[in-house]
Amino acid sequence: MIAIDLIGIGTGNPDHLTAAAVRAMNDADLILLPRKGDAKSDLIDLRRNLCAAVLTAKPNVVEFDLPARDGRDDYLGAVSDWHDAIATAWRDAIEKHLPKGGRLALLVWGDPSLYDSSLRIADQLRVGGMALILRVIPGITSIQALTAAHAIPLNALADPVLITTGRQLRVHGWPDGVGTLVVMLDSGCAFDAIDPVGVHIWWGAYLGMAQEALVAGSLAEAAPRIATLRADLRARHGWIMDIYLMRKETPDGR
């Protein structure tokens, strides 16, 4: 029997790990660390540093090459094929390193519940016939890290919040009846697609990391600054993880 722990690790800062996450990492027989290529070497380094910082037991820590997602226009099909390839990589590692069963730990950015595919991929292992027990250790999300960094509440008083993606924002615009938007997985400044009048933005990149960058202000004023800074950071580091919250002013100016 394989037990799989999906452990939310926040944004890579060891201080973001919960006591439950540290305990689960030390209880593991195997920890798998995905490599995403040279351009994102910082990401594997962050996971290595987390392990070095908190492991007191001696689980087997194994790195594997994460399959790349096809960039074709069929987005959902490309993602589905990518998940299949990752599930195969997990299965291969389990068969090689846990042939008699045991506990596998996977370190998930933020929390496994929010715009992460680890739960879906684990389900594919089960559908494929692997007997497993799945456990989720919750972590600090990038949304929590963003609102904390800017010292703002997630929602306005009695107002709904929508969490969406850059792709959805570009296609559908600002949804009716929603005062606050949180935008994740934006490949390139989708806030340019909306009317900036009366909108305030709080943006953050590399949250909780040494290279953290923050910008806040009216969307009309802040958007060009964010676009310039984002391009510079991406060129400098070879990758970027960012998120932003936008809020419309209420009729009374709040």
Automatic annotation (TrEMBL):
Domain Tetrapyrrole methylase: 6-222
Enzyme Commission identifier(s): 2.1.1.152
Keywords, in A-Z order: Cobalamin biosynthesis, Methyltransferase, S-adenosyl-L-methionine, Transferase
The keyword Transferase is annotated on this UniProt entry: yes
Gene Ontology BP, a term: methylation
Top enzyme class: transferase
Pathway: Cofactor biosynthesis; adenosylcobalamin biosynthesis
Catalytic activity: precorrin-5 + S-adenosyl-L-methionine + H2O = precorrin-6A + acetate + S-adenosyl-L-homocysteine + 2 H(+)
Annotated protein name in UniProt: Precorrin-6A synthase [deacetylating]
UniProt GO MF annotations: precorrin-6A synthase (deacetylating) activity
InterPro entries: 4pyrrol_Mease (IPR000878), 4pyrrol_Methylase_sf (IPR035996), 4pyrrole_Mease_sub1 (IPR014777), 4pyrrole_Mease_sub2 (IPR014776), CobF (IPR012797)
